[in-house]
Amino acid sequence: MDRNLALExxxxxxxxALVSSKFMGRGDKNGADGAAVEAMRRAFESVKIKGEVVIxxxxxxxxxxxYIGEKVGSQEEGTMEVDIxxxxxxxxxxxxxxxxxxxxxxAMGKKGSLLNAPDTYMKKIIVGPKAKGxxxxxxxxxxNIIDVSKALGK
Length: 154
Description:
alpha+beta
């Protein structure tokens, strides 16, 4: 069966979102984050990629976070090699307080295409190759959408 990789990644984020939802309003942001990480890690096992986390959370000695350098995916020979940026639960405080707008996030590109970032907070926007160089973090969302639309000829 040939599977759509995008749908596989939806399943990975869905696993993290569903398990973290059980912590909604319970005041346990670390429990929610840990559960999301473990669910995402397990879900990645069935995705046929050789993935490496290049933007993640925590360092190797601070498990259970998906750490920079961690290998995810099936790791089978002949599968696509990819870089991955991941946040299993962005909005731990929101979940803990029972508020909306928490999200599970994955961005993926071919090996070597994503910045191998240190474990630090930063603003990030992902665009395809046709919009490379047109995004400006100092511009508004509206301005960036217009610039990307022009770059894509839309």
